[in-house]
Design a protein that fits this description.
With about 240 residues, the protein is α/β, with parallel strands linked by helices. The chain has six helices and eleven strands. The site of zinc ion (ZN) has 3 residues, from helix 4.
């Protein structure tokens, strides 16, 4: 039987494990809330702890809900606007072309017979073109940040822009490449600083202050403005690769 907690109108599933030492809380893709707890954790203590995390949970759920729908759903017709690094480029549907999707620095050219699977081709384009750009960009910040990541990857992170993985690996969401460089830089620096300070401690934000003094502006711009650049949110991406 599943053990649950009801707090603040939300249901949390409790998953106990003998290997677990500290309490943890996750919001998974479908919005399910899970509390990870040591085997012998006291239920009242769990309830108090979850209560103290409610604000964070609500923020996560709101963000998830927003990211589920893209700001605008492209129809893939000629003349439409697609963003790359915050600049808008026009789309042109063409009949004859060697590859499904091509970019000449001014226009995106999409082959007519590939229109139905356009999101897949765009995702591939952002991942390939963006990956080269991103590696250079991360490298350009390493010196100032004083950290060098073990590996840099661009992939599908769902609702997150970036994350810091094992062995100093940094992972970024390919959808990020639609946003202006100053916002991508914020995400890059945010993750680079995590390589020296895993959590958002006062020390963490002091380091951010030093490396990117206007990070607060960029952070709030990212939180409030990202939608205007997003043709490819989480909802309308391609599930099949
Ligand atoms: Zn962080």
């Amino acid at each position: 039987m599943t053990e649950t907690l009801n707090i603040g109108g939300l249901e949390f599933e409790i998953r106990r494990s003998s290997r677990r030492k500290k309490l943890g809380l996750t919001v998974d893709r479908s919005g399910e809330l899970v509390v990870h707890a040591p085997e012998d954790a006291d239920k009242e203590e769990l309830a108090r702890w979850v209560h103290s995390k409610l604000l964070w949970v609500h923020q996560k759920l709101a963000l998830k809900q927003e990211m589920t729908r893209a700001a605008y759903q492209p129809e893939f017709v000629s003349g439409e606007t697609i963003f790359y690094l915050g600049r808008n480029y026009r789309l042109k549907i063409v009949d004859d072309q060697d590859s499904p999707l091509r970019f000449d620095g001014h226009w995106f050219f999409l082959r007519r017979k590939n229109v139905a699977e356009a999101p897949k081709h765009f995702q591939r384009w952002y991942s390939e073109t963006g990956s080269r750009w991103l590696h250079k960009r991360v490298a350009s910040w390493e010196h100032r940040a004083g950290t060098v990541p073990g590996q840099v990857t661009l992939g599908d992170l769902g609702y997150r822009w970036g994350s810091c993985g094992k062995k100093g690996a940094l992972h970024f969401n390919w959808r990020l490449l639609q946003l202006p460089v100053r916002l991508v830089d914020y995400v890059i620096v945010h993750e680079l600083v995590h390589l020296q300070e895993r959590n958002h401690t006062p020390e963490y934000w002091r380091t951010m202050d030093r490396i990117l003094p206007d990070w607060r502006d960029r952070k709030s711009e990212l939180e409030t403005g990202w939608q205007s650049y997003m043709a490819f949110g989480v909802e309308n991406d391609c599930k099949k690769k």
